[in-house]
Amino acid sequence: MKQLAPVFALLLLFSACQKEEDVQQFSNCEPYVTTASAWTDVCTVSSGQIQDDCLALVVSYGGGCASHDFALYWDGTSLLSVPGRVQLSLLHNANGDLCEAILTDSLHFDLTGIQDSTGGIGSIDILVDSTVVLNVPYGN
User: Fold this and answer.
1) Which positions ≥6 away from 23 have C-beta within 8 Å?
2) Is 12 a domain residue?
3) Is residue 16 part of a domain?
4) Is 110 part of a structural domain of the chain?
5) What digits encode the pLDDT tens for the residues 46-97?
6) What is the domain count for the chain?
7) Sign of CA dihedral 60, 61, 63, 66
8) What is the residue-averaged pLDDT of the chain?
9) How many CB atoms lie within 10 A of CB 33?
10) CATH of the domain at 42
C-alpha cells in the first residue's frame, strides 16, 4: 500500500494541473458583436464547446504572414424552435494575408448577454459564410 501512495500523489497533482489549465483556457473570452462587418475570409471550425457562458472554438485558416482578426456576430434574434436556438456568425478578416500555411487557433467568446436576452436557449448554431458548420449545446 505504501508503494501506491506516490502514484496516487502524482495522479492527484496531474489532475489538479489539468483542471487549472482548463480554467485558464476559458478565462479570456471576447465579447460578441452586434454590428455586422464585411469580413468573409475562409476558415474552418473543427470543434466547439461552452463552459461557464464562454464559447471556445477551434478554427483553421490559411495564412502566416499577417495577423488575422475574428469576431462572433449575433443579430439579436433567436429561432422559433424548442428548445430555443440562436445562430451566430463567425467573421474572419485575413488582412490580405496570402501565405499558405495552415494555422489553427482557439477563439473564446462571452455568451452571457445572449443567454440573458433570450431567456434561455438550448443550442447555438455557428455559421461561416451563412452556412451552419457546427451546433453546440447550450442551456441552463
Assistant:
1) none
2) no
3) no
4) yes
5) 999 998 889 999 999 999 999 999 999 999 998 888 788 999 999 999 999 9
6) 1
7) negative
8) 81
9) 15
10) 2.60.40.2370
Instruction: Answer whether residue 8 is part of any domain.
Output: no
Torsion of CA 51, 55, 60, 62, to 10 degrees: -150
Q: Name the residue range of residue 51's domain.
A: 29-137
CB-CB contact of 48 with 108 (8 Å): no
Distance CA 30, CA 108 (A): 6
Burial (0-12, 13-18, 19+ Cβ within 10 Å), 11: exposed
Integer Cα distance of 72 and 109 in angstroms: 7
- Check if the beta carbon of residue 92 is closer than 8 Å to that of residue 69: yes
Name the phi and psi angles at 135, rounded to 5. -120, 125
